[in-house]
Specification:
Helices cover 37% and strands 11% of the residues. The protein has 445 residues and is of the alpha/beta class.
């Protein structure tokens, strides 16, 4: 080997070793900073599915914790809790073992379609703390998609510097129906494969009352080019909200049926002054501004009866406007809703605020349990209660819905996962899935 080449090769090796040593020094330096003489008792909370704060000591009330995404802390003596973001929770990627002293926390704002295994008690019981859409979780996300009281109540937003009025008076909506042939009912969805099977109900309803359906699902109308090209990206923009406000009614059907799972589908029409026709959370009326703020399809025997009721409201402006009292009178009678909105204090309603609140809740709990008799906290279906998919027209268990099968398969998955975790058995995902399907085929779940 020529001398010049040998020198270049030796230099490259030396540089490589230098980089490795330098990175190791940085890691050791970070750990030294983290656990300095002032912080040698700081508990570690590990985001197993990277989501929240990373490499940061946070002060939560009178205590503090170190939050990290670095999985090398899994075996650290200061590790006190592991947090998971529900949509990224994967059976194939879990901690190597479950230590009894280490609590698990679940942050999950999405519906079961993101992770069907989490609808079952066997999987939920693996967690000690929760932040879900349920009012019964430790940090509830129930009103995550409701911006605030001002948007819900004030037509002119007169207390803000910039007017954001979307409201269209009833008589003007009636003119749009007759002059522009606008349907009285709006439907706009592009997710056509849902556990709630919402399109089935819409297809029946559309036989008895005119519905403008602009999305991919049950499509019979065309958006203008400005909205069509990117409407999924501008669902909170002024132009889209003004578009929704033109309609007397808006179909607001969730993609799954869970207690307190309420999304922007309900809040958007309430904000702009279109009456929601709702299907989703069985407990949604607990959060409405007033007794008459939305129409539930479950209050009617079927689509025909609902359509007849809507036609009666179209003939009677006074009866229709009873559903808009939060706009017309700027008045909310629901004390539970008002209390929940007041508890937000002055913070903006952003997901990051809830995430940080959950981090601090867990931090405070593990510090409390270090000082006192350890409490046993177990997450149950009360914190994530989603029902088996049903046919929205008949109300029967929907066996033809692909999601029904997924529900039942993942019940086996949840039972099997609990067995693996509680016994600290390493998971081979292929063998796990094979066992899961064998259990399903033998009806062992």
């Amino acid at each position: 080997m020529p001398r010049k080449v040998r020198v270049m090769f030796a230099t490259a090796i030396a540089l490589g070793l230098f980089v490795v040593i330098f990175q190791l020094c940085l890691i050791l330096s970070d750990r030294k900073k983290m656990f300095s003489s002032d912080d040698n008792d700081t508990p570690v909370i590990l985001w197993w599915t990277p989501f929240g704060n990373n490499n940061r000591v946070r002060t939560c009330g009178n205590v503090k914790c170190y939050f990290t995404h670095n999985r090398t802390f899994e075996d650290n003596v200061r590790l006190k809790s592991i947090l998971f973001y529900g949509s990224n929770f994967r059976v194939r990627d879990l901690p190597s073992r479950r230590r009894g002293a280490i609590s698990w926390g679940l942050l999950h704002e999405e519906s079961p379609r993101n992770n069907p295994i989490l609808v079952h008690d066997e999987a939920l019981n693996l967690f000690n703390y929760s932040s879900t859409f349920s009012r019964f979780s430790n940090v509830p996300l129930t009103l995550l998609d409701l911006p605030g009281l001002e948007e819900l109540v004030d037509i002119k937003m007169k207390y803000l510097c910039t007017a954001k009025s979307y409201y269209v008076p009833t008589k003007e909506k009636s003119v749009l129906i007759h002059v522009e042939n606008l349907a009285p009912v709006l439907y706009i969805q592009s997710d056509c494969d849902t556990a709630s099977d919402r399109d089935r109900y819409v297809l029946e309803l559309i036989k008895h009352i005119q519905v403008d359906s602009y999305g991919t699902c049950v499509n019979n109308a065309r958006l203008n080019d400005r909205l069509k090209n990117n409407y999924l990206d501008i669902l909170s923009d002024r132009e889209f909200l003004s578009f929704v406000a033109r309609y007397k009614f808006t179909i607001a059907f969730e993609n799954a049926i869970c207690d307190d799972y309420i999304t922007e589908k309900l809040w958007r029409p309430l904000i702009v002054g279109s009456v929601p026709i709702y299907y989703g959370s069985p407990s949604f009326k607990d959060w409405l501004p007033n007794n008459k703020s939305a129409i539930s399809i479950l209050d009617f025997a079927g689509p025909i009866e609902l359509a007849n009721f809507l036609h009666s409201l179209l003939r009677n402006d006074s009866a229709y406007e009873e559903y808009l009292s939060h706009k017309l009178n700027e008045h909310i009678t629901n004390s539970e809703l008002l209390h929940a909105l007041k508890k937000r204090a002055t913070k903006t309603n952003e997901f990051g605020n809830y995430m940080e609140k959950f981090e601090c809740f867990v931090c405070e709990q593990i510090q409390k349990n270090n000082r006192e008799l350890k409490e046993i906290n177990i997450v149950t279906k009360k914190q994530y209660n989603c029902s088996l998919p049903r046919d929205p027209v008949t109300g029967e268990i929907n066996k033809r819905n692909w999601w029904t099968q997924q529900w039942n398969i993942e019940k086996c998955g949840a039972k099997l996962l609990t067995r693996y975790i509680t016994n600290n058995i390493s998971i081979n995902i292929n063998y796990f899935n094979e066992q899961k399907m064998n259990m399903y085929d033998k009806n062992e779940c």
